[in-house]
Structures are given as structure tokens and as C-alpha cells.
Amino acid sequence: MAKEKLTQQEQVRRQKMQELRDMGIDPFGQAFDVKDNTKDIREQYGNCTKEELEEKNIHVQLAGRIMLRRRKGKVAFMDINDKFGKIQLYVRKDVVGEDVYEIVKRGDLGDIIGVEGVLMETDTGELTIRVEQYTHLTKALRPLPEKFHGLTDTEERFRRRYLDLIMNEEARKVAFTRPKVIRSIQHYLDNLGYTEVETPMMNSILGGASAKPFITHFNALDKDFYLRIATELNLKRLIVGGMDAVYEIGRQFRNEGMDKTHNPEFTSIEVYKAFSDLEGMMDLTEGIVAQAAMDVNGTYDIEYKGHKFSLAPGYKRISMVEAIKEQTGIDFAADMSFEDAKKLAEEHEIEVEPHFAYGHIVNAFFEKYCEETFVEPTFVYGHPIEISPLAKKNPEDPRFTLRFELFICGNEYANAFSELNDPIDQRERFENQLKEKELGNDEANEMDTDYVEALEYGLPPTGGMGMGIDRLVMLLTGQDTIREVILFPAMKPTEK
């Protein structure tokens, strides 16, 4: 194996590493007792005057990474970053001592240090720590990207997320906001009496959604398993078992393309409530989104993709066929044959695939003419039965179901049903899905006889909802690509 060729900066850093060792200093350090952070320091003392800081004599102890340094003679100024942000250090040789100042002199951008000192304000008005104790913790052997022209390659930012987090304040903000969104949802549902559960990530049967799966082989059983595409069927089994109100936040895996709103590995929440229905799920979905907005941003008002709107409850509600009629003038709620619908599709340059039935054509019209028109939060309900194998039929028009999707700024955020709890109807839907699979629809569900058997023991009338966590985080943090909100998104391999 060829020896790695080091740049001049890397050579200098390794030399400094050895000099530290020669001085009896471990270049890769030991534990350090961190008692303070930049956020608390700024919140508590950021508005103090110079005189107040001198009078209070506030001692702090924190650690961080050197992001800026300038040294002149016996004095050094540095900026260090902890996870909350930066603070300036003021280091004097006559305070820390000659031996320690030799360590300071060997510091580089990217090194991690611990400091103890007293808060002060410089003549330029900047809150600063006057360092009394300086501890080297970790030597950075590679230089950081140049601050203003460093990781400008977006692909490199995602491949080397650790550097992105070091250099990019916005990336850090998103990384810390994501768990706040999840905690908000958990607290909201917990307070409503829901129970958070965990279900298997590997399943022997493909079901719960329409998507291409990842397939793995379980050696102990010598059988192929699917990484789950949804948690739906197992969660509804728990409702049959009497848990009444459950939710799961977890990873799903879909063997499909990558784009601004899709990653093959993503996070969703699914929620199920016994004795609820479509209307109940609309109210719940509004509540989850609105509460998350308030908890994370302190307001319902939001600006996204150049649009300003509110996430406060009270979202617009429109049926799928109404939305199509508004955009095209075609009324799919009317009595219409498959052949009539197929002719309309051809006239509108919509491809009719071999497995298509009437409802597939309706959905194709919606996707082409309607999806991108919704800016403010909108519930679109009344999906065709062919694309909703797990939703209850509309008793007034069995061609359609009691299902909705939430759209905001042209993207889908949630999908919900009045759950199908008739085991005979469910078996027929699964059988129709098998026929679609034979006709080439590789996203169709498989027959889950155990789930049908569970329904035969009695699933109460139930409302269910699934929501993409990644897209919600995108919305609440103003990001236009899913890769910004997933710490380690799927990436194409680099050529060696």
C-alpha cells in the first residue's frame, strides 16, 4: 500500500503533535470537566456592561474547537466553538505561564481545547473569556476548510457531514432542531394518551404501503425478508390487541430513487386511534404540525419556497375529484366508465399502464394537474379504492375511500385513513393487489393472511395517519432538500 502523501500543513501539524509529546502533553488528551457553554454564558451575561462583569468576577469552564486565532508576542486571541456557537478567548503569557504559553503557540485551527477563566468585555464590546487555565485536548492533524470558500461543493458537505457541522452554523442549527421536532410530536401525543411502541424493521411479507422494498436474507430461516416500507399493519394489530392509541417514530426503507424529497432510508411517524376516523385524524395532524411549529419556531407563521402562510389549525379541505375538476373541468365523481376515463387520459397525454383501473387514472390526473398547486396546508380526501388498499370505502360512492393526504407547497406531508376493518373486504383488496403485481405493479402489497386473521378477531373503527418526519423538519427549518435534514443521506459512491 502506498504511503499517504501529506500536505505541507499536515506535516507541520504532525511536527507540532510530536513537540507536544516531547513536552509531556498527550496530543489526544484526557477528559475535561465542562461546566459551562456558550449559550448559557451569552444568555446570562451577554447584556452585562464591562463594569458589571468586572464586579461580578464570573468564572467559567468550557471546551471547544479553535476556529480563529491571532497571536502577537505575549498575547493571543482565539475564537472557540462549542455545539451552541462561538466565544472569544483572551490568553496572556504572564497569566497562564510560560510553559502553558508554549502549548498555546503550538495550537492550530481545528484543535480542541479546554479553558477556565473570567468573563470580561473587550474595548470593542465583545464578551470574552480571560483565560487563567488552558488545557490542550485534541490535535487536529488536518486543516479545516478555508472558512469562506471551504465546503462549497454540496455533495462534499453531505459526504463529510462532520466538516459541514464544524464549519456551517446553519447545518448545526438543523441538526439540533430535528430532535426538537420529534420531541414535540412525542410530547403532544403522550399528553393525548397515546403509547409509543416499537415494531419489527424486517418483515416476511410486503405490506402497509405501495413501494419497492429492500430485500435481505435471513440465514437462520433461509428465507428472504423485507426491510419495512411502513409500520401500519403491525400497529393495527396492536389496536386489535386493545392498546387503543399507539404511535411509532422510526425508519422506513424504500428501494426507490433519490431526489429533493426522497431518501431510500427515511423517518416517519404512524399514529392509530381506536374509535376515531378521518375527521379525527385531520384534527390530530393539524395539531401535531401546529404544535411542532410553535415549539421549534415560536410561531405558526412560516415562509417556505417563497410563500408565506400559517400552520395554525384550520387547514383547507377538498376532495380529490373536486381538485381535479377545479384544474381541468373534468368531473370524475360523475358516472364514468373505465373506457371513458382512459380516453380522457389519452387526450391529456397521461400514460395508462397495464395494471391501471378507473381509480389509477383519477390519481394520475391529480398528480399531473393538482399536487403542485397546493401552497397553504390542504387536506385532499377521497382517494380511489385502487390506490388505497387499507382504507375504508366511502359508503356513498364505493369507488373512493375515506382517506386524505396533507399537501403543503406542492409536497405531500401526511397520509391518513378511516382504517379498513372488514376482514372480507381486506382479503379482496389484497387479492386485487396480487393481480396488480402480476400485471407489473411491483409496488403492490402482498397477501398478509395473518393480518386478515387479526381483523377477524375485530378491529374497532379506527383512524390512522402516517407523516414524513424528514419533510416536516425541512418545512420548519426552511430547507429545500431532504439531504439537509438527514445527517448521513444516501450518496452515490465516489470514483476512486
UniProtKB/TrEMBL annotation:
Pfam families: tRNA-synt_2, tRNA_anti-codon
Cofactor: Mg(2+)
Gene Ontology biological process: lysyl-tRNA aminoacylation
Cofactor binding, per record: Binds 3 Mg(2+) ions per subunit.
EC number annotated for this UniProt entry: 6.1.1.6
Domain spans labelled Aminoacyl-transfer RNA synthetases class-II family profile: 180-493
Predominant localisation class: cytoplasm
Compartment(s) where it occurs, according to its Swiss-Prot or TrEMBL record: Cytoplasm
Binding annotation for Mg(2+) 2: E412
Gene3D superfamilies, per the entry: Bira Bifunctional Protein, Domain 2, Nucleic acid-binding proteins
GO molecular function: ATP binding; catalytic activity, acting on a protein; lysine-tRNA ligase activity; magnesium ion binding; transferase activity; tRNA binding
GO cellular component assignments: cytosol
Organism domain of life: Bacteria
Family the entry assigns: Belongs to the class-II aminoacyl-tRNA synthetase family.
Assembly notes: Homodimer.
Protein name from the UniProt record: Lysine--tRNA ligase
Organism: Sharpea azabuensis
Organism lineage: Bacteria, Bacillati, Bacillota, Erysipelotrichia, Erysipelotrichales
